[in-house]
Structure formats: structure tokens, C-alpha cells
Amino acid sequence: MNFILHIWRQATPQDDGFFEKHELEVEPESSFLEMLDALNERLIGLGKEAIVFDHDCREGICGSCSLVINGEPHGRHQATTTCQQYMRDYHDQNELWIEPWRATAFPVIKDLMVDRSAFDRIIQAGGYIPVRTGAAPEANTLPVAKRVADKAFDAATCIGCGACVAVCPNASATLFIAAKVSHLSSLPQGQLDTKRPAKMLARMEAEGFGSCSNYRECERVCPKQIGTDTISKMNKLLYQR
Amino acid sequence: MTDEQPLDSFSPKGPLEQRWTQHKYNLRVVSPANRKRYRVIVVGTGLAGASAAASLAEMGYQVKTFCFQDSPRRAHSIAAQGGINAAKNYHNDGDSVWRLFYDMITGGDFRARESNVFRLAELSTSIIDQAVAQGVPFAREYSGYLANRSFGGAQVSRTFYARGQTGQQLLLGAYQAMSRQVAEGHIEHFSRCEMQDLIKIDGKAKGIVVRDLLTGELSSHLADCVVLCTGGYSNAFYLSTNAKGCNTSAIWRAHKHGALFANPCFTQIHPTCIPQHGELQSKLTLMSESLRNDGRIWAPKNPADCGRDPRDILEQDRDYFLERMYPAFGNLVPRDIASRAVKHICDDGRGVGHEINGQKLGVYLDFADAIREQGADVINEKYGNLFDMYQRITSEDPTQQPMRIYPAVHYTMGGLWVDYNLMTSVDGLFAGGEANFSDHGANRLGASALMQGLADGYFILPTTVSDYLARQTPLEDKDYPEVQQAMNYSQSRLDRLLSAPEPKHTPDHFHRRLGKILWDHCGMARNEFALKQAIAEIQQLREQFWREIKISGNDKQLNQTLERAGRVADFMELGELMCIDALSREESCGCHARVEHLTANGEVQRRDNDFGFVSAWQFTGDVVQPKLIKEPLHFDFVSPGIRNYQ
């Protein structure tokens, strides 16, 4: 397969970026990131700087990879991450525009890599159950109904990739926060901290994310299919107490 | 130290079930008011590192944490799928701490310490309590109580799980506990920083040099002790199920400063991975071995059938070889045994799927019978996310046609040698999680990596690090010549990487070649001739690496090519030690199959009298001539027998 690639290059956060054009032949079985690996091998061979991008586990769970491919965060195949896109998925598109996440709160570091440390600071603001190591009672002393536990698990599968922010017209992190709030506050052990949503949302605003205005684009691109029902759940906790 | 003075693990004596309790009582503690005067550095923030950092910070120590990823939440612990063992006996099926201990000692083929393994079994139950209190959403039964499954060759149901994402949920629990301590100011965390060197002052580990991966800047950090939880070294093989960034650099730097490296050749090959599809593939993907609970593994009896659609191959033409060879355990035999059987079938010319180097490398894992017996819904509820993952990667639907699997490197039991306190042979340097060698012997049982990482981090390190600190005077802040030396060394190494005399090949080029040497000669089957050849080839390759490594850009900027080159350079040295270790261990045990020491039907043959020890290797100043120091293993409670899964 032959592709024409337009890849975002940006040397530093302060520099202006631009699209750099490359042409490349790849196998259909190649993953999207292996295609970039191959391109980088060529660039290094030519003495040029390799294209910088975040990646690690390459099996869709660590949340590192973060590319916008032809306008879609994580590419065209839904419910999965960039690293799980395969070139065979693009058999009918031979021209690809590859960009980083774009949001004020996720400044570009270099090329396709952005700074998502704001997510860590949002978790630090209240995305945990404050229990000390060693202070836990026997696990089965606290039964949790299966449907509640399953729902909490669904929300807990968030990988913190930031695609929800990248796609949101407001660059809002509401789905990210709602997922954590739904996970923790659904469970009996997480219900004591009633200020959790307010603390996390305040941090979100301070970090420069926008607020939610119900476009619901986030749930469409979420690789873990976290739904906006988590946002409803969070809003209920915020306003109905 | 010489061979005549064997290593002492400082394991407590006395009744096994009282050792940890008694030991804890004997250890010193630091009074709460004094704890803030002590500083601890934790490198690596996966399960072991994040849980250790959170626990030490809760106690009141000043903790600094470092990881190379952009957030601690991305450590590779996150990819563990199957589950975590705990001897809770919730199923009333005869489980106990003793039984878990016994399973791990035998599963590790009698190459682990009894004291350590018993402690791990004992702590397993507290880990589950801790995780549930943190909000880890384990699977539950309709009663609302925690669900368990049988996993990885265990004959009891003791595995707790969160669908196929147990590692993710446990890591997020530890990450959140750690985040809370960051917010409270007890942890200062540094993401996107990679350790370059260990700083030893007066012979004790007192700090590290790190490179800020964004700016390229080197900086030094001092503390009263250093804890390395930097994971395993499967990526020495290039293709493995590890994340691309996983590396050995931190523990290898420590090794070169005197920390002994134990059992480097004990590398686990996991039987159920998606087979390689091409030469340029960047990594392999594991399919949880929980799939073996319901899937049946088979290969065509007749090599002529290997190219056919598996659905057209008649029942009588299929060889369900694990069920045939191991009737008692069937498809659930431990990982090392299943992996070797699969390799044997493919070497026999009965493999299926893609051809790599002229050989079809794959066998079938078939769910057709399970779907027929239990219904598609039940099977999908259990394995749906794994099926999706498989289909995404291979574009084949496992509910319609059998999966193809082949073994891949997955975990390394070897690592830094540690004593019972998880301290390495360098005073003040601790190692936790996969980075140490402690508890899995020659083969790790399924669902025990998460258990070990968290036992080390939540319960063992907080206790033993405190004991160490209680015996130290807090380090004075002043200029130490050792700091500048370590900084200079780190800079000179970067300079050397960037100024190869004949730059020609990329880091990945060298890494692939190293990986192929190791996989071919130090993989699932090893022999003297091949290992000697591998050692010679690695030495040549390493020389070529330093002559021809080509890196674009410089060291004063974000440079992922340079990062990779630094890691490959360390794998080049460790790879040789792996082969040297495999060569010196003239027996087979667990994952380590020396073809000279297999029974007629291919089972491993231990030589307990000659090799009932831990091989701890000392760096002598010359990578090609490491020195072997032995820690004899004593079995007072379980007598070493032959592992029999038939």
C-alpha cells in the first residue's frame, strides 16, 4: 500500500508547526505506529530528526498514543486507540493527515507529542479514595451488588489518553473526570468524599479546559467506550445532594 | 566475596508461618516525628513503585518518584490481564496460605527461597483487602461478594480479576494512592525522566542521576536510600509482550555499581500470544492465559493439513496435544510446559499461520466446543474483550474460527539479587517488583506478578526501608565528589553514543539483531554450542553497535532515538550475561530448558545437588567476565520433587 502522509512537525512548544509531506509504502498488516517507525528509520538513516510521538504498550491499554488521523482522534476505527489502528483500515484512503491532540491544556511538546500532565493534577485534586495502606478491612465484609460493581468497572476502564478532550469543541475534560467520579462514587467505599466532583472540576477549570456543553463527541471517540451517562451521574452527585 | 563464601539472604529462621511476623518485630522503626527528616528515591512507578512510594509517603518520609512515561498511570503493569492470586479460600475448595506457597515453590521448580515465597502467600490476602478499600472494581458474583476463578494451572479458584484488565485496575489504585500523596506534598514526582546512573557515597546508595527527557538536562537527586522498581528486561529479545519503553537500564546501572544480578537466564515465555506476522513487527501481544480455561489447543496431526482452513479439518485429524500429553492438567499446564509443547509441535512441522524464516509458527486455540457447550453469550461475557483485541489485530473472529497462538517472551524472573529485606548487595539500594529476582524461581505462575509487585510495594518495602533508615543519619546536603563523577559519567556515555566513528545503523536495527540472537539461542530451548555462539555474536554486535550507531539530533533536546540507543546499549551487555548464565546452569529447570538435560519425552531435568542455588553475578569491571556467586537454596518444608502435570 502507498500512502501520502502529511505529518505535523513542531520543534518546540513556542515554535510554529507545519505539515511535512512524506510518501511511504507499507504492508497492510502493519500497525499505524509501525508505519511511523518505518518512516523514522528512514529519516534517521538520512540524518534527519525522527518524528516524535508518544507510545508505549502498543496494545491499547496504557493510553500513551495520541494521534489525530484525518481529523479523528485515534483514527477511523472506533472503540480503540491509535496503536490498534492497522494500515488495512485505510485501504480506501491513501492520503493521511496526522496531527497531535489540540487543546490549550495539552500544549504541544514536540511534533505529535503533547503535555497531558494536567490529567495527573486533576486526579491529585480528588480522584482517589483516601485510605491508608494497611487500614483495610477484610474484603468481603463489604458486599457490592454486581450491577453496581460492573458499572463502576465500566467507568474505571478510562485510560487517560485525552481523546475526549481532543475531539471536544470546548476541549473539556468532563468525560475524563466523570469516568473517575462514576467509578469511585458508585462504590460504597468511595461515597464518603462528597466533594470529589467539585474538587476535580475546579482543577479542570484552573488547568484551562473548557466546560461541557453536551456535544457528546467525547463518547464517540472514547477508545474504552465510556458513555456520557457518567456525566449525568456526576452532575447528579454535584447538584442533588 | 568468593565462591567459598556463599551469599546470605538473611532469611529468618524458625517456623515458616512465623518468620515474617517475627522478622517485622525484630526490625527497627523510625518515630513519626523523625520520618520527615529522611528522603527516599523511588525509580519506576508501576505497581511496585507506586505502591511503595504511596505507602512510604503516608508514613511521613519525603519521597521523590521518577518514571520515563508521561504519567505513572502508564507503567506496563497496566497491561496485565488475567488476575491476582490470593489465598482467601472464598470458594471453600481447600485453598490456604500453605497451598499457595506450595504451588509457587513447585511452580518455580524449586529455585526460589521458601521464606520469601511463604511471605508472599501470606501477604496475598491483605493485598485484596487493600485494593478493595481503594475502590478497585474486582469482578463480583450476584451475591455481591468477590468472584474468583481458577487460573494458570492452579487447581483451586483463588484468582481475583477485573475482567481482562486486572493490572490496569490495580495500577490505577496504586497511582491514585500515590496521587493523593503528591497532593499532600509528601511525594515529589518527576515524569518523563530516565535514570542514567546510581550515586554511591561511602559505598552506600544515596542518589541517582536522571535525564529530563524533554530538555535533555541531566540532574542529580540525593536521598537516604534508593528503591528501584523499574520492571523486567523481556525487551532484550526485541519482540516481547512488554511495552516498547520497558528497559533494563536502571538495574543494569545498579549492577555495574556492584548490585548482583540474579538468574538472568530465567525468562518466561508465555504460551498464548498472537503469532508474529512479519519481519518489521514492533511488538507481540499477549492473550490472557485465562483463555486456556475454555479454549482447546490443537494442531493438525498431518503436516499436509497445516495450510487448510482449520474448520475443515476433521476431529480425528486434530491433535489436542496438551490434553494428550498431560491428561490431568490438559490445557491448563504451567506456562513453561505449554510453551515448550507448542514449540515442539511447530518444530515438528505442524505449525499453522504465517511463515517466519521458513517456518509456520502457530497452533490453534479453539473455542468451538466451549461455545457449543456453554453458549456464545457465556463465552463472550468471559472473554469478549480478548476476542475483540484479537480480532482488531488479526482481523479474524475467534468465535467463528480458532485463534492462532504462539509463545512469546513475557516476563523475567531474574533481576537484581535481593535479600529477605529486598535490599540488593549495594547497601541502601532496594529493588521491588519484576526488577528483583525474589519470588518466582525458574518459572512464574499465572496471576502472581501483580501479587508480588504489590506485596513488595504496600507491605514489605515500607517495613524494611524503615528499618534501614532507622540505622542511618539523614544525609547532609553538601557537595559530594561522587555526584559530579556520576554526572560526568552520564554525560560521557551520551557523548559516546552520539559520536560513533562510522554512524550507519539505527538503534532499532541493532535491537532487532540482538533480539534474534537471544530468541534463537537463549529462548525456549538452549544448548551449550548455541549459547557459546550467541555470546560470540553478541560481543561482535556490541562492538559494531558502538562503532556504527547512528542517532540524529543531539542530547540537549527531546530525542527518542537517543533514548532508545541508551537502552539498547544496556541490553547488549545484559544479553551476554543471560547467555553466560544459561551456559553455566547445566541443568534444566522451569523456563530454563537445556536440551542436554531433558528427559526422553522432553521434560526438564533438574540437578538439585549441583544447581540448587541462585546464580548471582557480580560485575568485575569487564562485561565479558562476570563472577558467579552462589546463594544455596534450602528446602526445609517442601522437599524438591519432580513437577508432574501428567
Report on this model:
The complex is a heterodimer of chains A (241) and B (646). Chain A has 241 residues and is an alpha+beta fold. Chain A contains 8 helices and 7 strands. In chain A, strand 1 (2-9) and strand 2 form a beta hairpin. In chain A, helix 2 (117-124) packs antiparallel against helix 6 (196-206), helix 3 runs antiparallel to helix 5 and helix 5 (174-186) packs across helix 8 (229-239). The longest helix of chain A is centred in the first third of the chain and has 14 residues, at 32-45. The relative contact order of chain A is 0.14. Chain B is an alpha+beta fold and 646 residues long. Chain B folds into 2 domains: 1-266 and 414-646, FAD/NAD(P)-binding domain (3-Layer(bba) Sandwich), CATH 3.50.50; 270-410, Alpha-Beta Complex (Flavocytochrome C3, Chain A, domain 1), CATH 3.90.700.10. Chain B is 36% helix and 15% strand. Chain B has helices at 19-26, 32-35, 47-59, 97-107, 114-134, 166-183, 249-256, 321-325, 335-350, 368-374, 376-394, 449-470, 481-498, 507-521, 528-548, 560-584, 608-611, and strands spanning 39-43, 62-66, 84-85, 159-160, 187-190, 193-201, 204-212, 218-222, 225-228, 261-262, 267-273, 296-300, 318-319, 355-356, 359-360, 363-366, 403-412, 415-416, 429-431, 613-618, 627-632. In chain B, the strands form 6 sheets. Chain B has a 5-stranded parallel sheet with strand order 5-2-1-9-19, sandwiched between helices. In chain B, helix 3 runs parallel beside helix 12 (449-470) and helix 14 runs parallel beside helix 16. The radius of gyration of chain B is 24 Å and the shape is globular. Classes of the chains: A alpha+beta (241), B alpha+beta (646). Chains A and B meet through helix 1, helix 2 and helix 3 of A and helix 3, helix 5, helix 6, helix 11 and helix 12 of B.
